[in-house]
């Protein structure tokens, strides 16, 4: 994960980074960033497009999907579940999901990033 910060001017939680894996093969049509609270309850989900990451491809040139492994999501802090988790001091877990299903709920491969505390911009 490259960035996990609140942007107070835009009232958003910004999440950026990259992820690539051989487990994604055949499941890389749709991509989601999912936020979980510290009790592992889903509090937000956003479908994202992957972006070019030549830096990752340069280091992991043989890793499936490395060249197009970047992601970026902005979650609106007016989301009641997200706002509640943040106000209670909950650390959040970010999941990057590759899925063959448009809704992201079947035939998927997940990567769980370490729990994150939130930093203010």
Outline the secondary-structure elements.
Blueprint: E1 3-7, E2 12-18, E3 30-36, E4 42-48, H1 54-59, E5 70-76, H2 80-87, E6 93-99, E7 108-112, E8 119-120
Parallel strand pairs: 1-8
Antiparallel strand pairs: 1-2, 2-5, 3-4, 3-6, 6-7
Can you give keywords for this protein?
single chain, 121 residues, mainly beta, four-stranded mixed beta sheet, four-stranded antiparallel beta sheet, globular, DUF4767 domain-containing protein
The largest β sheet comes out as: 4 strands, mixed
Strand content: 35-45%
Query: In sequence order, what are the helices and strands, one letter per element?
Result: EEEEHEHEEE
Contiguous runs where pLDDT drops below 50 for at least 5 residues: none
Distance between the termini: 16 Å
Shape: globular
* Oligomer status: single chain
CATH architectural label = Sandwich
General description of the model:
- This is DUF4767 domain-containing protein.
- It comes from Candidatus Limosilactobacillus merdigallinarum.
- The protein has a single domain, classed as Immunoglobulin-like.
- A hairpin with a 4-residue loop joins strand 1 and strand 2.
- It has helices at residues 54-59, 80-87, and strands spanning 3-7, 12-18, 30-36, 42-48, 70-76, 93-99, 108-112, 119-120.
- The strands form 2 sheets. A 4-stranded mixed beta sheet has the order 5-2-1-8, with no helix packed on it. A 4-stranded antiparallel beta sheet has the order 4-3-6-7.
- 26% of the residues are buried.
- By secondary structure, the chain is mainly β.
- The chain has 2 helices and 8 strands.
């Amino acid at each position: 994960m490259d960035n996990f910060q609140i942007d107070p001017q835009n009232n958003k939680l910004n999440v950026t980074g990259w992820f690539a894996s051989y487990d994604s093969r055949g499941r890389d049509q749709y991509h989601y960033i999912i936020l979980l609270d510290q009790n592992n309850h889903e509090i937000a989900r956003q479908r994202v497009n992957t972006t070019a990451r030549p830096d990752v491809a340069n280091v992991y040139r043989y890793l499936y999907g490395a060249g197009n492994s970047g992601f970026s999501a902005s979650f609106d802090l007016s989301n009641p579940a997200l706002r509640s988790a943040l106000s209670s001091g909950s650390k959040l877990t970010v999941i990057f999901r590759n899925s063959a299903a448009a809704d992201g709920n079947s035939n998927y491969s997940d990567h769980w990033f370490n729990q994150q505390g939130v930093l203010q911009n």
